[in-house]
């Protein structure tokens, strides 16, 4: 078993090494070029290229008998670029929201079928909610996850529900929540993912009217009594400001 795992890891490392051979100056390479650059034998390089071609990560120019990176890398680059820009643009707005609410502010995105926090500002109170960066959380629990799911494509919603293990009644309740969050433009939860905590989340949209992330306020439920409407309004305004910076324009606006 260990031998198979070692061989798998080695194959992955070699495939990554192969991908690094391509640059802006050398976007197309022959089999011999890749053999020289990696130091791997021709059989291994050919096998790796064949595997990568099956996943469309490598394309072959049959006329020139050369290889180049596939179109999925455009998608990957867009994800990285958008998230880097999103974090940079979001921080000043998150700071303002943090000052207004004194609560924890987080910036979340969808990764696969999970929610990932890519930036956060801790609350200013002695007792505050802690959020871990980079840890996957389910999309079907809590305001931050459900908000992202509510503004996602139907295919992802169905995929998440199928893998959630929710009962029929729980699924119906989830779908009801998603419709409500879509209509009102924000999500709210209390004592759902963490007992004694609340979360308010709002969508961040881009120039194509597509969801690129969610901005959330979270903290202790006991501090929310007189602040709920203030927090909701501040969260919506902050998300709208960030969306506008990302190129979003309201339809008909």
Automatic annotation (TrEMBL):
Task: Name the keywords, alphabetized.
Answer: DNA-binding, Transcription, Transcription regulation
User: Known InterPro entries for this protein?
Assistant: GAF-like_dom_sf (IPR029016), HTH_MetabolicPath_Reg (IPR050707), Tscrpt_reg_IclR_C (IPR014757), Tscrpt_reg_IclR_N (IPR005471), WH-like_DNA-bd_sf (IPR036388), WH_DNA-bd_sf (IPR036390)
Tell me the Gene3D superfamilies matching this sequence: 3.30.450.40, Winged helix-like DNA-binding domain superfamily/Winged helix DNA-binding domain
Query: Which Pfam families does this entry report, sorted A to Z?
Result: HTH_IclR, IclR_C
- What are the residue boundaries of the IclR-ED domain, all occurrences included? 72-248
Q: Which domain of life is it from?
A: Bacteria
UniProt domain HTH iclR-type: residue ranges: 9-71
- PROSITE patterns tied to this protein: HTH_ICLR, ICLR_ED
Protein known as: IclR family transcriptional regulator
> Which species is listed as the source?
Cytobacillus stercorigallinarum
């Amino acid at each position: 078993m260990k031998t198979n795992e070692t061989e798998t890891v080695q194959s992955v490392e070699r495939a990554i090494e192969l991908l690094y051979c391509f640059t802006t100056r050398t976007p197309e390479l022959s089999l011999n070029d890749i053999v020289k650059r990696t130091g791997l034998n021709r059989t291994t390089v050919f096998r790796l290229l064949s595997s990568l071609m099956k996943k469309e990560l490598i394309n072959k120019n049959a006329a020139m008998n050369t290889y180049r990176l596939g179109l999925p890398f455009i998608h990957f680059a867009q994800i990285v670029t958008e998230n880097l820009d999103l974090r940079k643009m979001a921080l000043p707005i998150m700071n303002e929201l943090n000052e207004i609410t004194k609560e924890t502010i987080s910036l979340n995105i969808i990764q696969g079928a999970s929610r990932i926090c890519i930036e956060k500002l801790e609350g200013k109170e002695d007792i505050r909610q802690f959020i871990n960066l980079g840890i996957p959380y389910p999309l079907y629990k809590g305001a931050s996850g459900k908000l992202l799911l509510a503004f996602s494509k139907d295919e992802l919603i169905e995929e998440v529900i199928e893998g959630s293990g929710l009962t029929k009644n729980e699924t119906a309740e989830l779908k009801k929540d998603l419709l409500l969050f879509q209509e009102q433009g924000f999500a709210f939860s209390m004592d759902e993912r963490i007992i004694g905590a609340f979360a308010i989340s709002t969508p961040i949209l881009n120039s194509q009217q597509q969801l690129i992330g969610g901005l959330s306020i979270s903290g202790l439920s006991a501090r929310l009594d007189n602040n709920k409407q203030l927090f909701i309004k501040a969260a919506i305004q902050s998300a709208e400001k960030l969306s506008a910076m990302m190129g979003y324009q309201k339809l008909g606006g």
